[in-house]
Amino acid sequence: DVKPENIFICAPSQAEPDICRVKLIDFGIAKELYTHAMLESTATGMFVGTVRTMSPECFLRWSEDRPLSGAVDQWALGVSLYVCLAGRLPFDPPALAVLVAQIESEPPPPLRLHPRLQLDRTPPEIEEIIRRSLEKRPQDRYLSMRHMALALRAARRKAVVHLAAQL
User: How many angstroms separate the CA atoms of 133 and 151, rounded?
Assistant: First the structure.
């Protein structure tokens, strides 16, 4: 259940005073989903997880009996990155049916940085990572979370070089 509420930035430790670690917590749903009992007891059409961060293929899973892949986590991480920068969800209507329809068929709105960030603009590499992770078709996202992580690391390196050049 990757979502902003489950991502924590931990304070540096005494052993590594210059490093903040990011931790994903709350694996309750992930543990249950892979047990046979959970799959048998889940009602038809019931959503397991946080609907606002679910990928389009999650909604088709029950009607078309499709297996899910790691691409659902890419989507959820893309939503989380969007929230970190914009201060709001890319899809957030009040009605569940409208939310599902938007997630399945509408592109996310352009990323507008939250004013508290005091940044002129989002680095294009980060925008591209978010855009790609929010592609409707899983095959249009990264090949794996590892590939997404590599793109994020490359974007971080480029941002550090850019900041250092400004000093």
Answer: 11
Residue 22, Cα to own-chain centre: how many angstroms?
Answer: 14
Distances (CA, A) of 149 to 74, 111, 114, 145: 10, 20, 24, 6
pTM of the prediction? 0.75
Structure tokens at 122: 């989002």
Selecting among 1, 18, 26, 73, the annotated active-site residue is 1
Q: Per mean pLDDT, which of 7-16, 18-27, 93-102 is the most reliable?
A: 93-102
- CA dist 75 and 80 (Å) reads 9
Clarify whether 18 is annotated catalytic: no
Q: pLDDT tens digits, residue range 148-163? A: 999 999 998 887 776 6
Each residue's pLDDT tens digit, 71-88: 999 999 999 999 988 999
Alpha-carbon dihedral 79, 29, 70, 150, rounded to 10 degrees: 60
Residue of 31, 15, 26 lying closest to 50 (CA atoms): 26
Question: CA-CA distance, 42 to 58, in Å (whole number)?
Answer: 14
Position 32 pLDDT exceeds 60: no
Q: What amino acid occupies position 95?
A: A
